[in-house]
Specification:
Helix content is about 20%, strand content about 30%. The chain is α+β, with helices and mostly antiparallel strands and about 110 residues long. It has one domain (about 5-110).
Length: about 110
């Protein structure tokens, strides 16, 4: 598996009209073994990106290969529906968790 496959797999479970509007993925290079080809440390996708920039972003994530799960990748992906995903991990695995703002209570609405 690589980071591109993992992210695209998680995105495929969302409504097809939800798109990435920005992203920042960071790799903790300390977790890689000596002699391994190190991936780029930061993978940034800025708002208003072009198709070429999106492909370059995904190509960079494709270079981050791992078996099973890895905790050396963290990041945030902002989505067009106002939600965001954050990569998290514990001793049992790693995953992308999706977050959204909770509904505003009626007493807070004028």
């Amino acid at each position: 598996m690589n980071a591109k496959e993992e992210l695209l797999s998680r995105l495929s479970r969302l409504h097809k009209e939800v798109k990435i509007i920005a992203a920042k993925i960071e790799v903790d290079l300390d977790w890689f073994d000596e002699g391994e080809i190190l991936p780029q440390k930061n993978h940034i996708l800025k708002m208003g990106y072009s198709e070429e920039e999106f492909v370059k972003f995904l190509d960079g994530l494709e270079t981050i290969e791992y078996d099973g799960y890895t905790r050396d990748i963290k990041g945030t992906v902002w989505l067009s529906d106002g939600s965001w995903m954050q990569r998290d991990w514990n001793d049992r695995g790693a995953w992308w968790e999706r977050y959204a703002f909770p509904p505003i209570p009626k007493e807070l609405i004028n």
